[in-house]
Q: What sequence folds into this?
């Protein structure tokens, strides 16, 4: 067994991502990015065994194979039918965010003015629909004042105030669950539904998180540390799910 | 039976400046690239392109054919961003109608079903409604009575407008002379909806067989774009290159990298254009083979 001091930041992040799907039940877990993909697999192998994953193309797969391994496919899930799941709520997505703000708005469309962007990114993708139809979480591997901003340049994923402003059609199934970054875990469990620091990763101070955040975070009096992996989880992460340590390419240290 | 076998030249001859063209596939997967290359070679411009965007959008922007793009994203899948699309947007050379992915689906479906819109929650509260100020919301007419859902009382929903296309182009693994098309890969994407939404419907295919011969090529259940949805079929072997066309071939990652590198400077682009776009399909395939052999 590895001593706890050797646990890497990437492994802490993978566990924090896995926690996103705790108690999710039998839903489609749609992780974007290496560490969320690892987290979803870890959750499925441990405390959320009913989760369902895809092969990233057009099929549901059996269980949670290692990253990069050829999966056993069990059902067809072409893109058109993903919308059947999405719009019926049987899904919890963890998208990436180029920018995320205090209200939980997410942006992966453009940086700068939308009409003539400084940087054109991938586009809103399914973020508008995801965020008002089923639980949505975000993963930000490079927490900085450029990614955690006062106001995103383009609202793709809808945050709490925007959803409220759009009325019951938007709020009925809206739930921005968690934001996981390389520094900590965040939620919106405050009266004003603004971003709160839920835990800091081991080795990170609250001051460092504040300094890397471009807006006023809600910080409770006592901020716990993000939990580390259990011995079983560490074994799964290192020797089963990601033996090539691809997780270290997304988050260092 | 009408023989619907046609050519890329006949496809291009139907295009007029200002038309709205829907292009099937998804990202860098099963795109009708031979048809896209033919459009790039043509004199037609000022097009509105509706697509789940990949290098089709990148090429039509780089060659100045697209005036507007209607999409939820542009990506090359294994390479997240298309540099030709980014440059066109950042330099203000192309207009964008940015929809949520699901909205694009519903817009095509609405056009295929001949209804003016379909309602959805997707888009509510997002800047998709801000940057598309002509999008409208609707309120459910079922506020009371047996069809009412009290939890949606007073709910406004986005009315996704029908995305009517002048012309649709999709690429299939197989087609027959009558206009039936067969998709042998894992995903049909939204291709039948593009055909349903369009006034003129073209299918390009790896191989075109005689009417009735498709069951010998693969499952009948894979013939999902039947001849009622198709006006013309064009045989274009390798016609999705360099995007994937499973199970016939995967994405040509090395070529895709060369396509990306061609965005680095005007000289690189001119070399790419001369070698791969200013030639017909036979010349293109020869250049690809020669490039791969080097």
A:
């Amino acid at each position: 067994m590895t001593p706890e001091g050797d646990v890497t930041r990437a492994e802490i992040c993978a566990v924090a991502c896995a926690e996103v799907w705790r108690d999710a039940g039998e839903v489609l877990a749609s992780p974007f990015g290496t560490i969320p993909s690892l987290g979803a697999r870890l959750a499925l192998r441990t405390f959320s065994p009913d989760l369902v994953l895809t092969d990233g193309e057009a099929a549901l797969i059996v269980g949670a194979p290692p990253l990069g391994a050829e999966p056993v496919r069990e059902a067809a899930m072409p893109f058109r039918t993903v919308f059947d799941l999405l719009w019926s709520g049987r899904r919890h997505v963890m998208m990436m965010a180029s920018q995320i703000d205090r209200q939980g708005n997410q942006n992966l469309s453009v940086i700068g003015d939308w009409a003539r962007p400084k940087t054109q990114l991938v586009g809103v993708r399914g973020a508008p629909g995801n965020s008002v139809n089923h639980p949505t979480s975000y993963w930000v591997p490079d927490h900085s004042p450029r990614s955690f901003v006062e106001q995103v340049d383009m609202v793709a994923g809808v945050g709490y105030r925007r959803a409220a402003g759009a009325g019951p059609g938007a709020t009925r199934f809206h739930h921005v669950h968690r934001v996981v970054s390389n520094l900590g875990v965040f939620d919106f469990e405050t009266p004003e539904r603004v971003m709160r620091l839920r835990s800091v990763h081991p080795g990170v101070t609250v001051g460092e998180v504040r300094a890397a955040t471009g807006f006023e975070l809600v910080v409770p009096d006592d901020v716990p540390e993000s939990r580390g992996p259990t011995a079983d989880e560490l074994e799964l992460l290192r020797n089963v799910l990601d033996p090539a340590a691809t997780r270290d390419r997304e988050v260092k240290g | 039976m009408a023989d619907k076998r046609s050519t890329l030249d006949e496809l291009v001859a139907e295009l007029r400046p200002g038309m709205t063209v829907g292009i099937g596939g998804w990202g860098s997967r099963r795109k009708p690239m031979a048809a896209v290359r033919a459009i790039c070679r043509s004199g037609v411009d000022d097009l509105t392109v509706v697509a789940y965007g990949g290098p089709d959008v990148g090429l039509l922007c780089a060659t100045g054919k697209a005036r507007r793009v209607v999409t939820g994203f542009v990506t090359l899948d294994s390479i997240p961003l298309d540099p030709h699309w980014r440059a066109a947007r950042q330099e203000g050379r192309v207009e964008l109608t940015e929809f949520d992915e699901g909205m694009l689906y519903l817009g095509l479906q609405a056009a295929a079903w001949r209804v003016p819109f379909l309602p959805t929650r997707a888009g509510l509260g997002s800047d998709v409604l801000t940057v598309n100020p002509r999008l409208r919301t609707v309120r459910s007419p079922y506020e009371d009575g047996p069809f009412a859902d009290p939890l949606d009382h007073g709910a406004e929903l986005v009315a996704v407008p029908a995305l009517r296309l002048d012309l649709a182009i999709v690429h299939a693994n197989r087609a027959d002379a009558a206009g039936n098309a067969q998709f042998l890969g894992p995903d049909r994407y939204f291709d039948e909806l593009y055909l349903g939404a369009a006034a003129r419907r073209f299918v390009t295919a790896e191989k075109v067989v005689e009417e009735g011969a498709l069951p010998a090529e693969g499952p009948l259940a894979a013939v999902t774009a039947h001849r009622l949805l198709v006006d013309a079929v064009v045989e274009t072997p390798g016609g999705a290159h360099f995007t994937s066309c499973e199970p016939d071939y995967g994405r040509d990652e090395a070529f895709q990298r060369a396509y990306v590198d061609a965005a680095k400077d005007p000289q690189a682009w001119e070399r790419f254009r001369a070698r791969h776009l200013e030639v017909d399909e036979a010349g293109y395939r020869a250049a690809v083979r020669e490039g791969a052999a080097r």
User: Anything to note?
Assistant: The mean pLDDT of chain A is 97. The first strand of chain A starts at residue 28 and ends at 31. Chain A touches chain B through 47 residues (CB under 8 Å). Chain A has one domain: 9-250.
